[in-house]
Specification:
single chain; alpha/beta; Rossmann fold; TIM Barrel; 3 domains; five-stranded parallel beta sheet; 17 helices; binds sulfopyruvate; binds magnesium ion
């Protein structure tokens, strides 16, 4: 009997999957690969069912003889392990980033023998509806809120991109690249105080109030499913912070990061060039504890941001604050630096990890931008935030377009630099 292999990465079975199994069954014994969570989140939607639940669901399908786990999104290992006579797949993976997966299947089948069978991808209203249901489910507060904690467990580094609008949210949600033959995408979104304020033409001094920040978050949430980390500035008055924690949880935000500064907050990238005051350990611990007491769900995270290195207060101060904040209930620590060299970040992480192996560490490598995610992960970092690069790339592009139109008194000259709107709107979902 011939062996037929297909890989599934879905939480809901639709006509397309049934069709694949029927076609596979005609060719021989059907083995379905359930893609592991770690592989699945790199290019597909986040799972709403556990791997065990997915395996059971696939096992219960008519025509399926065996279910195995596919650990890697590429087919090299699984084909070597199973040596199937056929790999069967819908013909929808020939173009775009997914073609890297197809290439790996072709390569593996060439090496070990076997044939790729592609069948026409099923595009009917039922399939589209399943797709929509899955997406809608993931955007619900209870799914979105807990996803950050799940990602911290699943990924070596949770890659987080700054967003400040529906459109930037869509970019964070949908950008997928193929690199080294594998697919990759961002895991989470950062609603930066700097970029949210800048988008509104305001300085980053806690002037844009919480109602306005919540409006931005809502715009992002309307069109995305990925988890959101809010830059909560200083958290404001403790008496206000507790209310905001409740609101953020209810909306489905996964984490708020508050920084240990007090008085008029200025952006950290100014460091000691401007007057900035660090809060006392006691006050800041009290704020963290009050937030944790106000919280209703298990999943929401309050992450404490330490400004000691920014304000040149030294490593010992940074570390003693970190341990005190964790003791006060912080679910994570963000350590910030404005040095070009990541050495002080590495030193902090190594010393923190000597005593605390668990508490997630967050970093924002804006100044120390030569460091790789892999190096940060080796020093115990869990979440990396690319905090302002979308704003900084969009602004000069818009400014130069405005200048060129003004200089030429028409738009012809800039046209070659512009993306046709038809292309932009392919990103925007229609119901
Ligand atoms: C932000 O993005 O608003 C931050 C990070 O707080 S930083 O600008 O580096 O201070
Ligand atoms: Mg900020």
């Amino acid at each position: 009997m011939k062996k037929v292999y297909t890989c599934f990465c879905t939480d809901i079975i639709h006509d397309g999957h049934i069709n694949i199994i029927e076609e596979a069954h005609k060719l021989g014994k059907v083995i379905v690969g359930a893609l592991s969570d770690e592989a699945l989140i790199r290019y597909n939607r986040f799972p709403t069912k556990t791997l065990d639940e997915r395996i059971k669901m696939y096992e219960n399908m008519d025509g399926v003889d065996e279910v195995v786990i596919q650990h890697d999104m590429l087919y090299d290992d699984i084909v070597e392990q199973l040596r199937p006579d056929y790999v069967i797949h819908g013909d929808n993976w020939a173009q775009g980033p997914e073609s890297a997966l197809r290439d790996s299947a072709v390569r593996a089948l060439d090496k070990w023998g076997g044939e790729l069978v592609e069948i026409e991808y099923t595009r009917n209203s039922d399939v589209q509806k399943v797709d929509r249901i899955l997406k809608e489910k993931l955007s619900m507060p209870e799914y979105r809120r807990r996803r950050l904690r799940q990602l911290v467990k699943m990924c070596p580094v949770v890659k987080t991109l700054e967003v400040h609008s529906g459109l930037t949210g869509i970019i964070a949600e949908k950008t997928v690249v193929a690199r080294d033959g594998k697919l990759d995408q961002f895991d989470a979104m950062w609603v930066s105080s700097l970029c949210d304020s800048t988008a509104k033409g305001k300085p980053d001094i806690e002037l844009v109030d919480m109602s306005s920040r919540l409006r931005t978050i809502d715009d992002v949430m309307e069109v995305t499913t990925k988890p959101i980390i809010l830059d909560g500035d200083t958290g404001g008055l403790t008496e206000h912070f507790v209310y905001n924690v409740r609101t953020l949880e209810r909306m489905g935000v996964s984490a708020v990061i508050i920084e240990d500064k007090t008085g008029l907050k200025k952006n950290s990238l100014f460091g000691t060039e401007v007057v900035q005051t660090q809060d006392t350990i006691e006050n800041f611990c009290a704020k963290i504890s009050a937030g944790k007491n106000a919280q209703l769900t298990e999943e929401f995270m309050i992450i404490a941001r330490i400004e000691s290195l920014i304000l040149e207060q030294g490593m010992e101060d940074a570390l003693s604050r970190a341990f005190a904040y964790v003791e006060a209930g912080a679910d994570g620590i963000m350590i910030h630096s404005r040095k070009k060299d990541p050495a002080e970040i590495f030193e902090f992480c190594d010393k923190f990890r000597e005593k605390d192996k668990e508490t997630p560490i967050v970093v924002v490598p804006t100044s120390f931008n030569s460091v790789t995610e892999e190096e940060l992960s080796e020093h115990g970092v869990n979440i990396v935030i690319y905090a302002n690069q979308l704003t900084r790339s969009a602004f000069p592009a818009m400014q130069s377009t405005a200048m060129e139109i003004l200089q030429c008194h028409r738009a012809l000259e800039v046209d070659s630099k512009l993306m046709p709107f038809k292309e932009i709107i392919t990103l925007i979902d229609e119901l």
